[in-house]
């Protein structure tokens, strides 16, 4: 994208050459499922815009006030996961871990590595490994650039043209504001979720936590569904943005079965430490 933008400004770059390049770019984007017209810098700028929108809407996103120990707990966990050799963008994305004080059971990540964890999710889980699995999953959404891949598919070449011609310098801010309405940017595809699960396992392999921590999250959801006979209302938003079909669970268990030696699901949970942390969470 930056290459084309520079070339069109060059006096020897004629309009028909530009149009040819644009058509080639269009064919490439349409033929590749993981094409992305955004740069890593664009991802960071979008994440910054999302963060501003979130902070400007405290009714929808009541950020945790005080409780620095809880914030540090989540940040320390995130940074330890980022030490994984599988992480590729730790020096490119700012990676920021924040806590939203709400009963909603959820977590999400915006482009550029802005990860938000709800206290409702922290109360929902039973051990540290489960939370680490979720945080690793959200980091994977940033690393794999899922949001801007979906934006590329949605806006396609028309956005590329706007970027190249420089006709709308505030386009990133507008996209962030538009996507923020209705939280559309949070809705992941099944393929995105499966890929994020896979990388959560890969990231946690080099940490102290059981690498299949995400399975404890799945188990809690299934347990709640069995107890209530349906999906409880406080899980609606989670499942609308993070679909949980049975094949996703099967995939994770299959990946864990491939590991040699096979990880012990009774070790690396840090249940006592997690329960002590939960006692410090604000009540709602």
> Based on DSSP secondary structure assignment, what is the total number of beta strands?
3
Uncertain segments:
1-33
The fraction of residues in strands falls at under 5%
Helix share bin: 55-70%
Kindly name the structural category.
mainly alpha
Listing every helix as H and every strand as E from the N terminus to the C terminus, the arrangement reads: HHHHEEEHHHHHHHHH
Round the mean pLDDT to the nearest integer and report it: 81
Looking across the biggest beta sheet, what order are the strands in? 1-3-2
* Whole-angstrom Rg: 20 Å
Explain what this protein looks like in three dimensions:
The chain has 284 residues and is mostly helical. The protein is built from 13 helices and three strands; from the N terminus they run H-H-H-H-E-E-E-H-H-H-H-H-H-H-H-H. The chain has a three-stranded mixed beta sheet. Helix 2 (15-31) runs antiparallel to helix 7 (146-165), helix 6 crosses helix 9 (190-204) and helix 9 (190-204) runs parallel beside helix 12 (246-258). The radius of gyration is 20 Å and the shape is globular.
